[in-house]
Amino acid sequence: MAVLGGTWKITVVKSMIDGPIRFGQLQRAVPGVNRKTLTRQLAELEADGVVQRTDHGESPPRVDYRLTGLGSALIPVIAEMERWGGTYAESRDDLG
């Protein structure tokens, strides 16, 4: 839980499920996150071995992020959390 704790990390990881993604694409995929926060979240995920950052050494800079094997192991967990979230939302709708 400590690795994925925080407001944005699960959303960031979810954004990488389909493959490598560039920083600008991540910003669009995670609406509401500011650049500084996204940078910090990515650095923490990289330090925890969940995300790999690849700098292609080009000008203008081209950097992409992808899930590591450890990060890819989270995909079924995230899918189950989404399923539970849908069930939860339906049950809350039934109360109102």
Written description of the protein model:
The longest helix is centred in the last third of the chain and has 21 residues, at 75-95. This protein has helices spanning 9-15, 23-29, 35-47, 69-72, 75-95, and strands at residues 21-22, 51-55, 63-67. The protein starts with 8 loop residues before the first helix and ends with a helix. The chain is elongated. The protein has a 3-stranded antiparallel β-sheet with strand order 1-3-2. It has 96 residues and is an alpha+beta fold. Strand 2 (51-55) and strand 3 form a beta hairpin. 15% of the residues are buried.
Strand content: 5-15%
Indicate the percent of residues in helices.
40-55%
Strand order of the biggest β-sheet: 1-3-2
Number of beta strands: 3
Oligomeric state of this protein: single chain
What's the Cα radius of gyration?
15 Å
Order of helices and strands: HEHHEEHH
Q: What would you call the shape?
A: elongated
- Broad structural category: alpha+beta
Give a short summary of the structure.
The protein has 5 helices and 3 strands.
Defining traits:
96 residues; alpha+beta; three-stranded antiparallel β-sheet; 12% strand
Strand and helix layout:
Elements: H1 9-15, E1 21-22, H2 23-29, H3 35-47, E2 51-55, E3 63-67, H4 69-72, H5 75-95
Antiparallel strand pairs: 1-3, 2-3
